[in-house]
Amino acid sequence: MIRTAILAFTVALAPLPALAQPAPAKSVTVEYYYRIKWGSFDEFQRLYAKNHQPLLDALKEQGLITAMTAQVPFTHMAGGTRWDLRVTITFRDADAAVVVGGDYDKALDLATKRLFPDKAKFLAEEAARFALLEEHWDVIVVKAGD
Q1: Domain boundaries, position 73
Q2: To bridge 95 with a disulfide, which of 72, 99, 115, 135 should be the other Cys (CB 3.0-4.6 Å)?
Q3: What is the CATH number of the domain that holds 78?
Q4: Has residue 78 been placed in a domain?
């Protein structure tokens, strides 16, 4: 009987096996490069600040975006390799970064409707902003060794 009590006491004190925890979502970083037509940078930047930056800020407030930076090159670059603006965005996870129709797209749609009730004007200004581009491309980046 004493052996049974000791065994029961020992089992009660034994650590419980750890329950499987879902792996934390891994953030995704995307660099967006813009090559802007010569002489159009100021207008592009004005439209970006007016129409696109507020949407990104709204998505950051919701936690879908965790970090953002914008950079311009210090020196002039040659033709095909030239970019005039690089915006680096870290998304909460892959779904926020690349899933079409996911939480990011839904939140973006709601923020656009809230921030820009005049849809026709917003779309016209966004079309004007993109008309100022020579080229635009996106690059998903990872830390070396990941």
Answers
A1: 25-141
A2: 99
A3: 3.30.70.100
A4: yes
